[in-house]
Amino acid sequence: MSKRPDSAALPDFEDPAYQLPATVAQNRTRVKKGFWRKLLRVAGRVPFAEEAAAAYYCALDPQTPTRVRATLLAALAYFVTPADFIPDVIAAFGFTDDATVLMMALSLVSGHLTDKHRAAARKALGKTPPHEPQENSENQPR
């Protein structure tokens, strides 16, 4: 708590319990705005496009537990952030850090990634088997 005399009525906003919901909301906004734009731009150059798309659907699924959504949104926000540890324009190495962050997050929460999330990812990336009709979903790229 702050040492100000009137601090008894105010919460300690530096406490992670108050910061986490705001961070998750910020990551969700960043991911919803930039995920498909970036993934579709780089899909042919990254070997983890389908996993990233499945993670996106899992992160936005209201039935996914909050801690899982928070983990995936943090990893996906790192993917869409233009400035990262290894710039994406560096050939052969640019997406190494993105893949590492995403794969680590997926390994932590893989039990929550469902067939429904994987199927939505395949559809969004145009990998739908010919006998399955394509559906237009609110979260698919436009």
Layout of helices and strands, plus pairs?
Layout: H1 16-42, H2 49-60, H3 66-80, H4 96-109, H5 115-124
Helix pairs in contact: 1-2, 1-3, 2-3, 2-5, 3-4
Domain DUF1232: 69-103
Keywords: Membrane, Transmembrane, Transmembrane helix
Main location: membrane
Structural overview:
This protein is mostly helical. The protein has one domain (16-124). Helix content is 55%, strand content 0%. The protein contains 5 helices and no strands. α1 (16-42) crosses α2 and α2 (49-60) packs across α5 (115-124). The protein is globular. The mean pLDDT is 78.
What are the defining features of this structure?
142 residues; mainly alpha; 5 helices
Q: What fraction, in percent, of the residue positions are helical?
A: 40-55%
**Count of DSSP-assigned helices:** 5
Number of domains: 1
**What's the main sheet like?**
none
Class by SSE composition: mainly alpha
Mean pLDDT over all positions? 78
Distance between the termini: 47 Å
Low-confidence stretches: none
Radius of gyration: 18 Å
Short description:
With 142 residues, the chain is mainly alpha-helical. Helix content is 55%, strand content 0%. It has helices spanning 16-42, 49-60, 66-80, 96-109, 115-124.
